[in-house]
Amino acid sequence: MEDTGQSLTIGSVAKAAEVGVETIRFYEREGLIAEPPRRASGYRQYPPQTVRRVRFIRRAKDLGFTLKEVGELLSLRVDPSTACPDVREMTRAKIQHIEQRIAELSRMREVLERLARACRGRGPTSECPILDLLDQE
């Protein structure tokens, strides 16, 4: 959406950014987008660039960045003292975190597969090897 100088309602921003209205309100509460002024009618008047910011937040979240990290990325974008290497460093840290998470998930899958193979798939739950293992101290 181009900056036409016109203000948008929360519904228009949500629709253009392909998120729900509650998402816009949530991002406001989290400080990721500024709470806009209200019209005399009481409706919020969002500047058109809000759509771009919400899309940025959504894309960053889709790539695994936390809301805190998204806030940091947004700050880096407007801070004249930062440079591209700062963003690259955050991205490399996120990659490392994802690789650690993949390793954890792989271990979890292996354990669950072993448990599933140990279960006969019949009988009472009091004899279930999966529940027995989860119940161990």
Question: How many domains make up the 3D coordinates?
Answer: 2
- Rg, rounded, reads 23 Å
Low-confidence residue ranges: none
CATH topology of the largest domain: Multidrug-efflux Transporter Regulator, Chain: A, Domain 2
**Tell me, what's the shape?**
elongated
What is the typical, i.e. mean, pLDDT? Answer: 89
Helix-strand string: HHHHHH
Termini separation comes to 57 Å
Structural category: mainly alpha
The number of E-state strands comes to 0
Report the sheet-strand fraction.
Answer: under 5%
Task: Kindly provide the name of the CATH class of the largest domain.
Answer: Mainly Alpha
Give the CATH architecture of the largest domain. Answer: Orthogonal Bundle
Multimeric status of the protein: single chain
| Biggest pleated-sheet summary | none
Could you characterize the architecture of this molecule?
- Helices cover 62% and strands 0% of the residues.
- With 137 residues, the chain is mostly helical.
- The protein folds into two domains: 82 residues, Multidrug-efflux Transporter Regulator, Chain: A, Domain 2 (Orthogonal Bundle); 55 residues.
- It is elongated.
Give the SSE map.
Layout: H1 10-17, H2 21-29, H3 49-62, H4 67-78, H5 84-118, H6 129-135
Helix pairs in contact: 1-3
Features:
single chain; Multidrug-efflux Transporter Regulator, Chain: A, Domain 2; 6 helices; elongated; 137 residues; mainly alpha; 2 domains
Gist?
It is built from six helices and no strands.
